[in-house]
Structures are given as structure tokens and as C-alpha cells.
Amino acid sequence: MKLAIGSLFIGVAVLALKGLAYWLTGSVALLSDALESTVNVATALAALIAIRVAAMPADANHPYGHHKAEFFSAVFEGVMIVVAALLILREAWDGLRMPVPLDAPVEGLAVNMLATVINAAWAFLLIRGGRRHASPALLADGRHLVADVLTSSGVAVGVVLAVATGWWILDPIMAILVALNILWSGTKVIKDSLSGLMDEALPDETLARIEAIITTEATGAVEAHDLKTRHAGRATFIDFHLVVPSETTVFEAHEICDRIEAALKADVKGASIAIHVEPEHKAKETGVITPD
């Protein structure tokens, strides 16, 4: 929560600095950088709201919790990035038709680079915090800031070249490159978020670890099958069927399940596990995990 609140304040401060850089220079490229920062402010607010909602406990209407709220925030961020790219392209087109000399480029670049340094430091903190808390909203915000840092650096290079050569058309050309880059970034954020909303399975390496844990801890069972996984924000859902010998008592089957659950929760942060116990005649020939 503190990171999300911090993002909002950092976003406002960076937007003010980049707006000042544009006001000093009149650069279309620096304007494009400032427009992208307006997205940072809007999405930081959306991420803050989403994280608050996602932290709410499960209730009668949402028995699986509110974890997916963070995916909606990430989708919103991606859409806003795409909108910003289209606005930048429009401004760049006007600059291509009527390129103009830049005012106070040194001062403007200095202010813009200060904003870039702040963004770089905050992006590092967001990505580290997003990975630690398994938060899609914080990760999306951090990755967007990384893209912002790269584009700001590119903008600075373009403005320096325009001033050095007197080819003022380089300024709107750089703005176009910025727009294309953040357009790619926005579509990637949307794609990653939609995979979570569509209940995409966990990565192959995580699935392999889960299967290995079941194989090790399911001693006394016949097999496990129909393994299904999905993630929703900070929660990871794992469910499968566990086949036990017909003579196994309820107590013994429960002990096996408890052992598997404890091992899975120790390995997969935020795991929510459902195991359906079945008698031996329910064994399958495909998709089977056989205990050691």
C-alpha cells in the first residue's frame, strides 16, 4: 500500500518537472514525455484503488477473494498507455509539418533528466516490491516506469541532436519513436493482465515444482491427476484429485492431504489448495502424478 501511495506522489512530481521542461523548450518530444507522465499519475491512482480492493477479505459475494482487482488496474494502465501514444503521435504530426527551434534546451533537458532519475529509482523499488508481494498492479506500474525512463533518455538524445545539428525536425521524429515504443509497452501490459483475467495456468517451471512436491509428499496415495492452477493477484490457486487405496481411512487420507498442502504452501507463496480425494477405482491412465 505504501508503494502505491508513493507512486501517486512521485507521478505528480515527475509530471510537474516534465511539464516544466516542455514549457521551457517548446519541444514536441519533451511534450510527449510529459503526456506519458499524465498516464503515470492516472494509473498510480488506479493501482492504489485496486490494491485496496484486492486486500479485502473474501465475503459471501466473493468467496475466492478480490485478488483479480489488480488485473483490472493493469489493463487500465495498458489502455491509458495506448491512449497517450496516440496523443503523442498527433502532436508529433503537427511538429513534422511545422518544425520550430527550441527555447532554453539546456535548462529543459536538465529538468527532464532530473525527472528521469527519480523515475528510474522509483521503478526499481516498485518492481522489487511487486515481486516480493506478487502484485500485478505494482509490477505493471514499475515496468511502465522502466519504459518511461528509456523513452526519456531517448528523448534527451533526440533533443541534443536537434540542437547540435539545427535539424529541428528531429524533435517530432523522436516524439514519434517515443510513441511507438510506449504503444508496444502498453499492448504488452494489456496482454499480460488479460492472461491473469482469463485464468491462465502457472508457468511451466512452477508447475514442475508443484508436481515434484506432490510426487514427494503423496506417499500412501495411488496417484494424483487433473491438476489445475491459476493465479489471481497475490493468490495462487491449486487443485487436483488425489486417488487413495480403497482401504484408506478418512483420517489417513486427511493426513496425506495435510502433508501435501503444507509442502505446497511452503514453496508457493499465497497458495490456496483444494484436493478432491477419490477411491482407487477412479484412477486414470493420463495426466497422472505418481507418488514416490
TrEMBL record:
Membrane topology value: Multi-pass membrane protein
InterPro entries given in the database record: Cation_efflux (IPR002524), Cation_efflux_CTD (IPR027470), Cation_efflux_CTD_sf (IPR036837), Cation_efflux_TM (IPR058533), Cation_efflux_TMD_sf (IPR027469), CDF_Transporter (IPR050291)
A GO BP annotation: intracellular zinc ion homeostasis
GO molecular function: cadmium ion transmembrane transporter activity; ferrous iron transmembrane transporter activity; zinc efflux antiporter activity
Pfam families associated with the record: Cation_efflux, ZT_dimer
Keywords carried by this UniProt record: Cell membrane, Membrane, Transmembrane, Transmembrane helix, Transport
Cation efflux protein cytoplasmic domain sequence ranges: 202-280
Localization, UniProt: Cell membrane
Coiled coil: none
Membrane-spanning residues: 37-57, 69-89, 109-127, 147-167
Cation efflux protein transmembrane domain span: 7-198
Domain of life: Bacteria
GO annotation, cellular component aspect: plasma membrane
Protein family membership: Belongs to the cation diffusion facilitator (CDF) transporter (TC 2.A.4) family.
NCBIfam families: CDF (TIGR01297)
Protein name listed in UniProt: Protein p34
